[in-house]
Amino acid sequence: MLLNEKTVVITGASRGIGKGIAEIFARQGANIAFTYSSSEAQAADLEAALSAHGTKIKAYKSDASNFEACEKLAEAVNADFGQVDVLINNAGITKDNLLMRMSEEDFDEVIRVNLKSVFNMTKAFQRGFLKQRSGSIINISSIVGVKGNAGQANYAASKAGIIGFTKSIALELGSRNIRSNAIAPGFIETEMTDKLDAAVVQQWRDGIPLKRGGSVEDVANACLFFASDLSSYVTGQVLLVDGGMLT
Ligand code: NAP
Questions:
Q1: Angle at which helices 216-227 and 16-27 pack, to 10 degrees?
Q2: Index of the ligand 1 atom closest to the CA of residue 189
Q3: What is the pLDDT averaged over residues 215-223?
Q4: Ligand 1 centroid – CA 175 distance (Å)
Q5: pLDDT tens digits along 95-143
Q6: Which residues have any ligand 1 atom within 6 Å of their CB?
Q7: Extended beta strands in 43-187, E state
Q8: Which CATH architecture has domain 7-188+215-241?
Q9: Residue 155 catalytic?
Q10: At residue 193, does pLDDT exceed 90?
């Protein structure tokens, strides 16, 4: 029970990686406040399923890209849970296109949802962390933010921005015992990748040193390390969870 009596906030946990993090964290004894954008039914199902582990679990419909919404969320979560120990900024979207075809709207929206959301949430929850003189912030970046990717200039910029933000916050808040780290997942197999051409997916797997795509559990276990006291002397880091893809 690595997260016994810890309260964790996760953005975008109605599906995908966020949901995987919530599932592993609930098994490790965490109380969980998680957000979603529109998947009402999936969020309610997850809230019910995770509550079976016996800790407090609550879903909130909240737009992470909206500054006021994040302030209200922090008020509600603090009132419901009393204290927050870990913040995981996971919500993210893609709007891929070559620069030639990328609209201003698609650039702005990806930056707003992926990067501005990290500012909004960190600012809203830092007050509690400062007061209690402890906290762990975990930001989900991507290997695309480290390496870049043709057709994803907006997404890569947002994910690279997250890394700069993560390191700056580690420097600013370290003296208050608040840690800030990023995780950069590689090719993670989810429901979304299930829909892709099998031959293309196999080609991706073959190019990875560990010869497989990552699972949501692989990413969640890295989050577990940063959320727990096992990483109490680790801050300002970017952990690549990519099967060696960028090595
Ligand atoms: P996903 O399956 O598309 O899930 C995205 C989650 O974010 C959903 O719960 C969604 O809620 C929520 N969300 C979207 N916009 C939001 C907003 N404005 N406010 C609050 N919540 C919002 O994505 P994923 O593949 O699990 O990715 C999760 C994170 O990992 C993202 O930051 C992504 O960039 C990063 N990542 C993923 C991979 C990969 O291979 N999958 C690789 C590297 C990095 P609704 O269900 O309500 O829409």
A1: 50
A2: 40
A3: 98
A4: 31
A5: 999 999 999 999 999 999 999 999 999 999 999 999 999 999 999 999 9
A6: 11-18, 35-39, 63-65, 90-93, 113, 140, 142, 185, 187-188, 190
A7: 57-61, 86-89, 135-140, 178-185
A8: 3-Layer(aba) Sandwich (3.40)
A9: yes
A10: no
